[in-house]
Amino acid sequence: QVQLVESGGGLVQPGGSLRLSCVASRSIFDFSYMGWYRQAPGKERELVASIYSGGTTYYAASVKGRFTISRDGAKKTVYLQMNSLKPEDTAVYSCWASGGGWGQGTQVTVSS
User: How many helices (H) and strands (E) does the chain have?
Assistant: First the structure.
């Protein structure tokens, strides 16, 4: 059974950085699409960044230039590097893969 496990969240001050990891139990190239999503309390879940098996990436306008999605096939991991974090980035970040479903999520809190 496919498993997706996110990690790397935590508490960080505005302007700080975090790197989230989504580790899959199988080759990440088995998934045609993988994405990072986030959901803050009272808000809809939104797509933050995604990557297709061919390497094409997408970023939400709110994070473009600050976040970077990348992958390491050998480690079966997709990363989300988050720089210049803002309080509005506070949310539970979850990984989703086509055909694999959701990971459990990891909390990111940006606060002074």
Answer: 0, 11
